[in-house]
């Protein structure tokens, strides 16, 4: 992106890109206005992008009124999500690649799965599930590597009206058992092993452990992926590949209501006990498809790569449902960015001529720490657009991404959204909206954001404002409830700011009306009466050349109320000296101001992260508070061992 906008710091797509884009600036203004002025008319039209069995007559029916929260879209329509993602493409693109599967080990050949093959394999998987007694409304837990069977299984559930709940393959047996029990699943689908970064996770053995704590009736379907030996319990375990081979190659899809659940997905757990977010069929699919097309400016013939895991909502909406509903070619990557080397992402981009690349800031920062040689080695000329998701992207990482990956010619869409929202809420549409490094910019169609003062819940009416981010009204892709706990749903999202959906995030709206997400409200610290988002301090730290990653939390401080505690991961090869500690303090002081100077800096070789790459600040907070006896649920951590090291080397021994 070149800084060619009228205002400094605003980046615009090239004239060619804009000329070719689905939505330009005028189009955005016109459509946004239509979407909020008459949501029924707007969404009735947008809903035609998927296939309906019985057309709906009602569009929107929702209230955010605390105590009565209810959200319904297209409620009397019927459809089948797998039919919209597969069958309807049979006439036009049966032999087009639907999914490119890229294995963990680059020496293993990749697979190109056509829409025709996707239909057959999904059907076979659906027939296997039916043979196990799975039917409409039943829950199926998926605990799988990033292999084609994960896609077949999700779509097979959709085909027969079962509700899937994907659990990331890196989760512990405990986390898996919790989710199987909470959703009262009939079946869990797993694999023998999950190869990742050249190592193997013993998924089947984890599942055996989890099932120890579950009902005896839960069946265990096993995909023999690596072929390594595992235990086998006759009568409970089922060989998926063998059953699929023997099953009929076609399975008729069932008709489901627009408001029948499509999936349950437990949030990543960065803030507490995981919540079983429920998404339904019609509205979710319309929203996933539409955001995929417009945010990424997807065109026929493009090759779309979202690097997320299907265990995360990003994988649901932007590897599977959105792209497939649009008849796209989507990449499913089994591996990690650093195996066999730090050039893997770029090697895969070159190999499959990826046009849109979508990843998380944490991945960008970690690759940034490895130097630019890994990027320069590969031909990235096919790239047209880049995207990020998951946390605020610090300008340092944005600039690196823009310069070294996008070569200054790819718009970067910073997409703000949540498991709960089903799809993007705030993001620059690339042909329409100028980008600012670190800003999610403008709302998607139908989204009405509000900034509220957390002190008195007053709506901030000035354009430039700071506060908490709420949304005024429902949109088709939003969650409908928490599984089995509607009261907790209302409590968590609708009780604090009555009449609005509360995102839990803080934000700033600038003079141009662009939104900057400042991180979770829980992550705000109050130093000597000044409220400060931890993201801001982290961003300043990361801007220092010696720092690869940083996490900042508050801790009780006698004088200031809260002190600033920074965990800092240094770049490869940098020595953690006291001089450097001083230098970083001065650095933050000059970057932000004296108030932001960290009180304690701990060198952290690793940070506790969820499997989706997010820092678990609640754990860091406990360590900083010297209260590490009660760390809470750590079962969703990517690498629990980093916590011990942080405790051993903590700076606040109180
Ligand atoms: P839990 O709710 O269990 O704590 P989580 O919030 O990490 O987990 P997700 O739904 O995956 O689970 O993440 C959504 C959150 O991620 C948002 O609320 C926001 O804090 C952050 N986020 C996502 N995208 C962006 C973005 N583009 N910019 C800033 N923050 C983002
Ligand atoms: Mg959340």
UniProtKB/TrEMBL annotation:
Q: Which organism is it from?
A: Pseudotabrizicola sediminis
Name the domain of life this protein comes from.
Bacteria
PANTHER family from the xrefs? ACETYL-COENZYME A SYNTHETASE, ACETYL-COENZYME A SYNTHETASE 1
What's the name of the protein?
Acetyl-coenzyme A synthetase
Q: According to the entry, what is the taxonomic lineage of the organism?
A: Bacteria, Pseudomonadati, Pseudomonadota, Alphaproteobacteria, Rhodobacterales
Q: Give the protein family.
A: Belongs to the ATP-dependent AMP-binding enzyme family.
Stored Gene3D superfamilies: 3.30.300.30, N-terminal domain of ligase-like
Every AMP-binding enzyme C-terminal domain range: 536-614
Q: Which positions bear N6-acetyllysine? A: 614
What is the stated purpose of this protein? Catalyzes the conversion of acetate into acetyl-CoA (AcCoA), an essential intermediate at the junction of anabolic and catabolic pathways. AcsA undergoes a two-step reaction. In the first half reaction, AcsA combines acetate with ATP to form acetyl-adenylate (AcAMP) intermediate. In the second half reaction, it can then transfer the acetyl group from AcAMP to the sulfhydryl group of CoA, forming the product AcCoA.
UniProt entry tagged with the keyword Nucleus: no
- Give a yes or no for keyword Nucleotide-binding in this entry: yes
Binding annotation for Mg(2+): 542, 544, 547
SUPFAM superfamilies annotated for this entry? Acetyl-CoA synthetase-like
Q: Which cofactor does it need?
A: Mg(2+)
Positions with a binding annotation for CoA: 196-199, 314, 528, 589
* Domain annotation AMP-dependent synthetase/ligase: ranges: 91-483
Any idea which GO molecular function terms this record carries?
acetate-CoA ligase activity
Task: Kindly indicate where the leader peptide sits in this chain.
Answer: none
């Amino acid at each position: 992106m070149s800084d060619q906008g009228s205002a400094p710091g605003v980046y615009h797509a090239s004239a060619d890109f804009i000329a070719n884009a689905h939505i330009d600036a005028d189009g955005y203004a016109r459509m946004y206005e239509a979407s909020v002025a008459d949501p029924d008319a707007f969404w009735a039209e947008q809903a035609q992008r998927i296939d309906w069995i019985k057309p709906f007559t009602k569009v929107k029916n929702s209230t955010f009124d605390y105590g009565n929260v209810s959200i319904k879209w297209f409620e009397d329509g019927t459809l089948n999500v797998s039919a919209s993602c597969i069958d309807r493409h049979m006439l036009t693109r049966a032999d087009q690649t639907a999914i490119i599967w890229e294995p963990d080990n680059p020496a293993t050949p990749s697979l190109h799965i056509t829409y025709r093959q996707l239909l057959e394999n999904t059907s076979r998987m659906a027939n296997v599930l039916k043979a196990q007694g799975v039917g409409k409304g039943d829950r199926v837990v998926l605990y799988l590597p990033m292999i084609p069977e994960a896609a077949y299984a999700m779509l097979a559930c959709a085909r027969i009206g079962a509700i899937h709940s994907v659990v990331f393959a890196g989760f512990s047996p405990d986390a898996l058992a919790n989710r199987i029990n909470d959703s009262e699943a009939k079946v869990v689908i797993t694999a023998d092993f999950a190869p990742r970064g050249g190592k193997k996770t013993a998924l089947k053995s984890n599942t055996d452990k989890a099932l120890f704590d579950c009902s005896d009736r839960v069946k265990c379907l096993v995909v023999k992926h690596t072929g390594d030996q595992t235990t086998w319990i006759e009568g409970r375990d089922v060989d998926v590949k063998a059953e699929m081979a023997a099953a009929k190659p076609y399975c008729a899809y069932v008709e489901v209501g627009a408001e029948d659940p499509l999936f349950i997905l437990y949030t990543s757990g960065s803030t507490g006990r995981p919540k079983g977010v429920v998404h339904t069929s019609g509205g979710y699919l319309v929203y996933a498809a539409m955001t995929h097309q417009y945010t990424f400016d997807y065109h026929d013939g493009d090759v779309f790569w979202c690097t997320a895991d299907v265990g995360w909502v990003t994988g649901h909406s932007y590897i599977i449902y959105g792209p497939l509903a649009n008849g796209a070619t989507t990449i499913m990557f089994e591996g990690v960015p650093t195996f066999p080397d730090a050039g893997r992402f770029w090697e895969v981009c070159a190999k499959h001529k990826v046009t849109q690349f979508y990843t998380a800031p944490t991945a960008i920062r970690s690759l940034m720490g490895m130097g630019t040689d890994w990027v320069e080695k590969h031909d990235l000329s096919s790239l047209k657009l880049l995207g990020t998701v998951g946390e605020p992207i610090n300008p340092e990482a944005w600039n690196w991404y823009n310069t070294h990956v996008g070569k200054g010619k790819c718009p970067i869409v910073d997409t703000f959204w949540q498991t709960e929202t089903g799809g993007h809420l705030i993001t620059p549409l690339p042909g329409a909206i100028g980008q600012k490094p670190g800003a999610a910019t403008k709302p998607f169609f139908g989204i009405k954001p509000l900034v509220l003062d957390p002190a008195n819940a007053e709506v901030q009416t000035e354009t430039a404002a700071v506060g908490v981010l709420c949304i005024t009204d429902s949109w088709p892709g939003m969650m409908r409830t928490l599984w089995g706990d509607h009261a907790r749903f209302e409590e968590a999202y609708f009780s604090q700011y009555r009449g609005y959906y509360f995102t839990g995030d803080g934000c700033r709206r600038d003079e141009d009306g662009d939104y900057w997400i400042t991180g979770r409200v829980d992550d705000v610290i109050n130093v000597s009466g000044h409220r400060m988002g931890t993201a801001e301090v982290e961003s300043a730290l990361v801007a220092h050349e010696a720092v690869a990653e940083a996490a900042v939390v508050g801790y009780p401080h006698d004088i200031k109320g809260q002190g600033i505690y920074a965990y800092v991961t240094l770049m490869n090869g940098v020595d953690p000296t006291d001089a450097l500690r001083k230098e970083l303090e001065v650095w933050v002081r000059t970057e932000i101001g004296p108030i932001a100077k960290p009180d304690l800096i701990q060198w952290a070789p690793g940070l506790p992260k969820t499997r989706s790459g997010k820092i678990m600040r609640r754990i860091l907070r406990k360590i900083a508070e010297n209260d590490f006896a009660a760390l809470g649920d750590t079962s969703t951590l990517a690498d629990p061992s980093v916590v011990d090291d942080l405790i051993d080397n903590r700076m606040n021994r109180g």
